[in-house]
Structure formats: structure tokens, C-alpha cells
Amino acid sequence: MKSYSITFLILLGLLFNLNAAEVFPPRFDYGAKFVEANRLMEERLWTQSINAWKEILEQDPNNMNVNYKIGYCYLQTANSKKEALQFLEAASVKKFSKNYDEYDPSEKKAPVKTLFYLGRAQSLNGKLDEAIESYEKLQKALGKKHLMYADAQHEKDMCIEAKNQMANPKNYLITNVGPVVNSTDNEYSPVLSLDESTLFFTTRKLRPDSSNSNLVDFDTGEFKEDIYVSFKNEEGVWTAPEFLTGINTDQHDATISVSPDGQTLFLYRDNFGDGQLLESALIGETWSEPVLLGSDINTQAWETHATVSADGNTLFFVSDRVGGIGKRDIYKCVKLPNGEWSRALNIGTQVNTIHDEDAPFLTADGKTLYFASKGHNSMGGFDIFYSKLGEDGEWGAPTSMGYPLCTVDDDVFFVPMADGRRAYYSSAQTGGYGMKDIYLVDMPDITNETQLAVLKGFIISAEGEELPDDLRILVTNNKNNEVSEYRPRKRDGGYLAILNPCTSYHIEYYKGKEMIKDDDINVPCESAFQEIEREVFLVPVTMTPAAPKETPKEEPKADKVEEPVIIEEPAISITPPGESLEVKEFKYDSKDPINRQYIPEKGFAQYSRYFVYDFHNFGVTEPEFALFIRDVDAIIKSGKKPVITVEASASKVPSTRFKSNEELVDHRNETAHDQIRDELAKYKRVEGKDYSFGTPTKLVQGKDYANDAKKNRLIYEQYQYIKVKVQG
Q1: Which residue(s) pair with 495 in the sheet?
Q2: Distance (Å, rounded) from C-alpha 349 to C-alpha 399?
């Protein structure tokens, strides 16, 4: 009985303890959780730290210090900075701690520097006037001798700059590149080949094979960075992005730059916070194992970005190494005669500031450097700037790209195209598909037009046959006899080369050691950006020797000998002037695109110029135009005062140089008008006195464009012309 009573009491006690555990949960260890949250902050694991601080806040919701800590951590995140505002506002409602100790769990008040981060959060949420007020309060509380006083002044200046720029927005058309490239995850850091046919970018989405399902960034909770590529198809549409096998690893791999032809990729790799810069080459259709950039480019410091000049001889990169002007600075290396990179040199205080610089991009002509900076006249965080290279070889004062391309948040990766009027960048805009998306920017008012030419085209094999591996293009600069070698892309036969103005070039196309075509190109000194297209067709044909007369029935087999031949573009022929009194109607003929007629008896002359494939110029460089001007002078000599009427036309194929085909037609009309007036002036003929211009005709006509410019070239060309008629 006694033993039974004892057993009963033990069971009853156990039952009571179990129930008590449910009613009274384990005691919350505030001090231990405080230490843990601080440790996560020190390790820069912002998201995990936020979660730990929020647990503490649930137990102590009026703790100003914890509100401050949460707000500070949110400001360090990539995707949730705006969330900081509510916590920093809560941290600022009471007096600040006079002897703040960030490691003391008993500290319940926030530090006075909360005002600094409150101002940043207010700015990010568009409350610029309130942000300025917060910075002024901080400065008043600290005094001018405090180290944070200058930082607060810089932030305040950025808020004032933001107000000015937002009141005077630039004329940019910003368009999302669409859901094929962008997803619900982060897409950013776009880099493109110069012909805009290949887009490399960084994303944090789940791989197609889910092989990165366990490769998670502990800070953000996202997948680690991977590199993908998308190609434009014949219709100019981006295709489904492809995962770059052989380049991506289990660590962070991100795009930073690509060579103009899209065949050398520069990337950032982060193993454990030690950012490194690497390069990989496209060999056939396979990317080589990425290798570290040489010299002292990679160090124990943090290297984040690089860009290489079009000729491959100059490299700009970013590092926060000791001895810089600020934190992250831009450095420069040049290619030595042995093919190695020189030692790095800081590019100086004209570009670098005491704040951070990042993401340099050098234009194809090497004369404009785009970069991101938290200094200069930024309107908040990183803004996009550009600097022009002076004749003295020094970089000029940077200019902001302005709002809305620049914002109060970080704007870092910006890649302009060859014409200087279009660019790609990433942004977290309202209405996007994910957190950060890739956007196309049209900049009609930009003045940074590139003065160079791009030779581009395709080497096309016979239908059903692969492109040979031994194709190459040699480009010889006739000024200095330097020879550059290019190889077509195995994927589609595309190739691209940069040509400088005021220079002539000799182009040779080789298959192995055999030259299959050559060409000469002259780029005028005053030339603005232009694209020169050349296509080389490799068409197998039967080389059938003549059969002996005595054995006419003997014929060699058609498949014995096959060699590549080239289908050349039609040569320009010139129609002789008309000799009859009948006015001719000049019509389109791709083999005879220039025509002229002169009828002295009628005081009549006319000239027509069709712009057949790859011919865009108009003027006295064409002999028939010079003869036409002589005809007009003869009409004036005969005592007549002729009226000159210009008809300019364009097809509906989108122009690569002009915003619209209407603008192209205006350009053609004005060019004809100016050329005629200037050439007649050489004969001492004055407009208004000796002749006059009639009302011009401007046409955009023909077949609606259906992404078939190559296939239906002959259809579109018949609407690409200038016609001039003169009647005395």
C-alpha cells in the first residue's frame, strides 16, 4: 500500500510537470539571443540577423536599440532596403543614448547615428525633405568635428541633387526586355556583344536541372549567382536563356564584361568573400575553363568588375585594395609586348572619389568611360556617370546620366551599345517581373555618339553543312599595317570587327591558307557611327573540266571536285545620259542603281540613286552625280532659272541609325539639298538668284516590315532612293 502510494505520487508529479511545460514555455534567454543577433550582424548575414532581432523585439517591442538594429540590417540588404523605414522611425521617437554600447544587452535606447540611417531610409522611400531634416538634426547633435558630420553632409547633398534631377528628368525610354529573359527572381548585370546579338546576364533562379537547390546564399535566402546567355533570333527576339555549363560553379558566378565579338567572357567569382576576376574564351561552341586575370589584378582585396578595350590592349577594373583614393577605386592595366598585363595603376581623382566607384564600361572607340559612383553629384547610392577622354589622354570631369536612369537607390550596371543611343541596365522598377529585371534604354537626346564603324556580317555555309573550323578574317589597318584576326562564331557564322574613323582597311577572308575573298573599306574622318555589313557565302559547286571533243559522251561525276566560291554583291553600273527628248522614268534595278538624264532642248535634267545593299552614301564621290551638277550648271548658262525638286524615300525596314524612317527620309532630303547647293556653289551659282528648290517629296512606303530584311532585300530596296528632277 505504501509502495503504491509512492508510485502514484511519482506519476502524479510527472504529469504535473508535463502540463506545466505546456502552460509555461521555456524562459526566453534575452542576453543569449542578443549576443547571437550581434554576431550575425558582424558576419554580415543580414537576413538571419533581422530574424534574430525580430524575435527579441517580440519580447520587448518598445526597445529602441533593437528597432535601430533591425532598420540598420534592412539597409544592408539587396532587396529589402525600404523596409528599414518603419523600424528606424520607431527607434527615433525617444531620446538617444548618450553613452551607447552596441554590445550591451541592457541598452534599450538607440544611438544618435540612428538619424543618419533614418535619413537614408527616408530618401529610399521618396521622403527627401524629411531625409534632409534628419541629416541636419544629426549634424547639429554631433558638431562639425565629428567624423560622421561630413558623411551626413554628403547624404544631404545627394538628397538636394535628387530633388533637382527629379524636377528635370532626361528624355529616356526605358523598356523591360520581357519575360523570356526576366523571371520572378533577380536578373541583373547584363553584358552584350557589340552587334547586340548575344546577351549574358546574372540570375539567382533555380537551374533547369535543380542542381543548385542546395546552393543557397545564407544572407539573402536566394540561390547563388549563375550566368546565363540568350541569343537574338532572325526576328530580333531574345530566345530562352541557356545555363552556361563549364563556367558556373557551386559558388557565386556573375557576368561583368564581354569582348565586342561576344567570344571572350569576363566574370566575377566569389568563393568566400574574396571577389576574383576571371576570363573564359569561346572555342567552337564550348567555353574554356575560366582563368584568373594576371599581373596584380587579383589580390587579397575585393575585386568586383572589369572591362577591356575593343582592341584588347587596355583593361579597367575595380578593387578596394589598400592605397586607393577612396574605398573601391577604378584601376588600369595595359597589354605588354609579351602579351601579359602591366602592373595596375589608379586612374586618378578625376574619376575616383573618397567614396565607392564600380562597374566601369569602356565604349568601343575607347573615348568614353561609363562607371557607377557614390561620389560626384550622385542623387543617392551608386549613380551612372560617364567621363570623356581628352586629347591630353586624361579623363574629363564626369557627367551624371541623370534621372530617371539614376535613382536614389543603387544604379550600377550600365552597358551602352555601339551607336551610343541605346543601352541595357538592370533595375528594380515597379511593374517588373521580379525583384531586379533587365531593361533596354533608348536615349534619343544623348550626345555621346561613337565615331567608329563596325564591320559585321555572316559567313554562310551551304544548306545542311556545318561551318568549317578553319575560317578566319584578317583586317589590315592601311595606316600602320597592323593586322587583327577574327573568327566567325561557330553557332551562326557571325563575325564583328571594330574600324576606326579616318582609316582605310583591307579585309581578307580565309579558309585555312586559302583566301576566298578580299575587300577594301574606307572609314571617313568625319564619320559618325555606321555599320558595314558583309556576307560571305560558301556554296559548294561542281568544277567540271571541259570534255575532250573526241569523247563527248564522257562526263565526270558531279561530286568529284567541290570548292567554296563566293557570291559577290552586284557591282554598281552607271546608266549613260539619255539622248532622246523623252523623259525617262527611272525604276529600281539592283544591278544599275544610279541613273542620270540630260535633255538640253527642254532645259531638263534628272538623277536617281537607289540605296542597294550596303551602300548608304550620296554625293560627289559618285561620278554620275558630278556630271549631273554639270548638267544643272549648263541649264543655268542657257539663261534659265531652274527649279530643283528632291524626292526622298525609305522602306519600312527599321533604321539602325535613326529613331524612325521618317527621320531617315528627312536626312536623305537634307543631304541631297545640301550636296546640290554646295556643288553648285563651286560653279558660283547662288540659290535664289540662279536657281531655286521646289517643295520636296518625302515618302515612307512599300511592304510592311516582317523581320525579313535579308530574305526580301530586293523588295525593300526599291523604296530606298533619292530622285532629283531639274526643270528650267
Answers
A1: 457
A2: 14
